[in-house]
Design brief:
172 residues, Beta Polymerase, domain 2, five-stranded mixed beta sheet, globular, disordered N terminus
Length: 172
């Protein structure tokens, strides 16, 4: 039995720097995005929802190339067996990608239950200064974050919603 390749430890600031350097327009969602709303917890990945326009997907593909990104869990497949390539055209086909990079796991999400798409997510997004980053990335707004977590409905998501509601009470 062969051992699965190990992924690099998550280095979210480095992932965000590369995306920023390539001019990738995106909104952070998932566990890392909780911090913008007063909840801090560990997470195994960085989840980004990119703007779907072709120019942005080209920039994203370039950033992914710089990161040495490859689809996670696809090592047993031949390239022709994969649904799409990790380039602007493949990303343009939509879908969600679980990727391993030299800075840890990066999930590129282009369809998420609970939000109607990029326009809604971007409209509600908030900039948040991340110490040590040098720029303020966009994070999913509180209502959208709760809606996504409610739609996912996993135990961790339900715990996150409870923590977000507690933080909202403490901050509001």
């Amino acid at each position: 039995m062969t051992e699965a390749p190990r992924t690099a430890p998550l280095r979210p600031l480095d992932l965000l720097r590369v995306l920023h350097e390539h001019g990738v327009e995106h909104v952070l969602i998932g566990g890392f995005s909780l911090a913008a709303h007063g909840v801090v917890r560990g997470t195994k990945d960085l989840d980004v929802f990119p703007a779907p326009d072709t120019a942005n997907l080209r920039r994203l593909a370039s950033a992914l190339d710089t990161l040495g990104a490859r689809a996670h869990g696809m090592d047993d497949f031949q390239p022709e067996e994969l649904p799409a390539q990790l380039d602007a055209e493949g990303l343009g086909a939509g879908g969600n990608w679980v990727l391993v990079t030299r800075f840890g796991r990066l999930d590129v999400m282009q369809h998420v239950e609970g939000v109607r798409g990029w326009e809604q997510l971007r409209a509600g997004a908030i900039p948040f200064d991340v110490p040590g980053l040098g720029h303020a990335p966009l994070f999913a707004g509180l209502d959208d974050l709760v809606a996504m977590k409610r739609a996912a409905g996993r135990d961790q998501d339900l715990m996150d919603i409870a923590e977000l509601e507690r933080a909202r009470g403490a901050l509001g």
